[in-house]
Amino acid sequence: MAEQKENLQMEKIVSLCKRRGFVFQSSEIYGGINGFWDYGPLGAELKRNVKELWWNTMTRSRDDVAGLEATIIMSPEIWKASGHVNTFADLMRECPLTKKRVRADQVEPQSGTVIRYSGAYSRKQSEGSTEDEKKYSRLFDEFAPALKSEESIQKLFENNVSEAEVKNIGGLIPDGKLDFLRKATAAAFAKKVFQPFSILLQQGKPMESARKIATQYYTENGCSDPILLGEHVDKVENSVDFHPESGIELSSARPFNLMFKTYVGPVESEDNVAYLRPETAQAIFAQFKNVLETSRQRVPFGIAQVGKAFRNEVTPRNFTFRSREFEQMELEFFIKPDEVIDTIHGRVATISENPQSAIRNPQSNWGWQAWHQYWVEERVRFYEGIGLSREMLGFHIQTKEELAHYARACTDILFKFPFSKKDENGNVKGDELEGIAARSDFDLSQHQRFSGKPMGVFDEELRAAWAKLPKEKQDVLWKRYYDHRKNYLTKSAKPDETPEQISQQATDDANGLAKGQYIPHVIEPSAGVDRLILALITNAYSEVTKTDDKGKSETTVVMKFHPRVAPVKAGVFPLLKNKPELVAKAQSVYELLRPHLKAVYDDGGSIGKRYARQDEAGTPFCVTIDFDTLGEKPELLDTVTIRYRDDGRQERLKISELLDFLLSKVR
Ligand code: GAP
């Protein structure tokens, strides 16, 4: 029941998105393309606002983050180094008839009656050419369906079954016909299509419908005019083995790489393969040295990028939540390894020493844990600042088993979407908006190894501090750094790398500390633009029902966007459109605002209708120019009425103060 309500809520939101021009299905006039979405006029403004706010928060308002705008297609070597070519895959299962795939971990449990077939063989193909073969074949046609399983036919074929047994298996074999049947089996068996096939019978459908689909399946798999074998009926309870649409039993799980492949240049050969980037992060690592040198930043510092990413998702779902083309806003924040912090500062400040109030002010002795917590808090504050309250957010702290082998921690910030599922205690936890990962020095190390270009940095402070450390402390820190590097190098070793080479490399890396050299570690807050847009839309959606004097009630939609993200900040209306003085004044107010913020001018219909239109678009303020603006009441000359979307409150404001008022609300 609750789920139905949530689905209805999503249906209403999807319909509003289309009706008001927030989100359209991509290529809609051609029937759409699954997993791709376009943003209409209001959606485009909303998206632009979100990206700009992120960019301003993460780069312009900080001294320690620089920006990057890299290409979507990069050297395929990048994706080998990052691990995407080998491991960026979802385990998925396929419907053997429709070829539709589902993620192995996302198959909805189903219960009901299953019709199973042990296989089929082709009547036509097994006809044979000689008179004898034809006779055997006809006989086989007659009796084969009664043979219960592939195993029983196999046994017969292998000739190690008695006539009595066969009678028992088939129940229908006439006396003295076993030899014929054996020969017929042999003839038919050569053409067999014996893979089993099962289908969940749809409610209210007859057995015949299952037979029809099984026949279609075997026919499409090269078995012309199939005779179905070993039909039997089974019951399943909460099974995750059947395709949610076709009801057909799924193949076993196989990895499926999510990167979109293309070719660079006119020749479609393996040498020219390239990929559409599946994340924006890797360009940041690949350009780390260039940014470091040109921005004159020093660790700790970050590089931020906003841009398109592409993943050939097996099951795009929940509107824009899981799409195949989407945008990311990613920051790679490079920090010193804990061994370096310890060398320089004599200790590493950790979370317990950084209560919530202190976590806002980065300290030079912070280790990776404090930085990780800092970025989780920063990101939550960002979401709060655009209207997503903490109550609507959730957290998932990845377990050891969930973490990538190189990651030290990952906290996902979740949002409670209408489609988010309840846990066993009936609480909605939410679905991922953003992941904040502590990725150690894995990424830069990988690019150093694959490109052969050094990705480490030199730190004079480290070199000087190391020289002053007592030998025992040097030994402890050296060993810790060595162990970490050896662990990484062992897990990421190429097949031709020997344990001796790995130990030597780890030794060289640890010896680098004394020379002031290290590879930075990274904290990665990685957010999806489209998921955030969907969160903002579902969060803003509200319905208001009003009843008029005659008892007629009407429900309207109010999109309660935070003014910072609202696609349109102000609607400007003349009270009447047939009064040139009102129109001219309203136009002048509109012209005053539009260079500074997104405003719309609307003179169509009653003021009530115009308010309702802007409420649906989520416009937080409406400005009306009336006769008092023109001086009908002299004390109100050059004032306007400003109406607040969320509570309908109205107040009078001087035109000369209007822009500052609006800017103070929307920035
Ligand atoms: N560089 C790390 C990275 O890409 P991720 O968890 O795979 O990590 C980060 O993606 C964010 O990108 C997610 O939290 C989500 O907001 C967004 N995202 C990932 N896949 C998406 C998809 N198929 N559709 C929409 N957004 C997606």
Task: Provide key terms for this protein.
single chain, seven-stranded mixed beta sheet, binds glycyl-adenosine-5'-phosphate
Secondary-structure map:
Elements: H1 2-19, E1 23-25, E2 37-39, H2 41-60, E3 65-67, H3 76-81, H4 84-87, E4 89-94, E5 101-103, E6 110-117, E7 119-122, H5 131-143, H6 150-157, H7 163-170, H8 178-189, E8 197-200, H9 207-220, E9 226-229, E10 232-239, E11 254-257, E12 261-263, E13 273-275, H10 281-286, H11 288-295, E14 301-310, E15 325-335, H12 338-345, H13 368-385, E16 393-397, E17 409-415, E18 431-438, H14 442-451, E19 457-458, H15 460-468, H16 471-491, H17 499-511, E20 517-518, E21 521-528, H18 529-540, E22 541-547, E23 553-559, E24 570-574, H19 580-593, E25 599-601, H20 607-617, E26 621-625, E27 639-644, E28 650-654, H21 655-666
Parallel strand pairs: 3-14, 24-25, 24-26
Antiparallel strand pairs: 1-2, 4-5, 4-11, 6-8, 6-10, 7-9, 12-13, 14-15, 15-21, 16-17, 17-18, 18-21, 19-20, 22-23, 26-27, 27-28
Helix pairs in contact: 2-18, 5-8, 12-15, 12-16, 16-17
The structure holds glycyl-adenosine-5'-phosphate.
Glycyl-adenosine-5'-phosphate is lined by residues 279, 281, 311, 313, 322-323, 326, 328, 330, 432-435, 524, 526-528, 530-531.
So how many helices? 21
Strand content: 15-25%
Number of strands: 28
Strand order of the largest sheet: 3-14-15-21-18-17-16
Structural class: alpha+beta
Main sheet makeup: 7 strands, mixed
Q: How far apart are the first and last residues' alpha carbons, in Å? A: 41 Å
Mean pLDDT: 91
Radius of gyration from the alpha-carbon trace, in angstroms: 34 Å
Which stretches are poorly predicted, pLDDT < 50 over at least 5 residues?
none
Shape: flat
Helix proportion of residues, in percent?
25-40%
Bound compounds: glycyl-adenosine-5'-phosphate
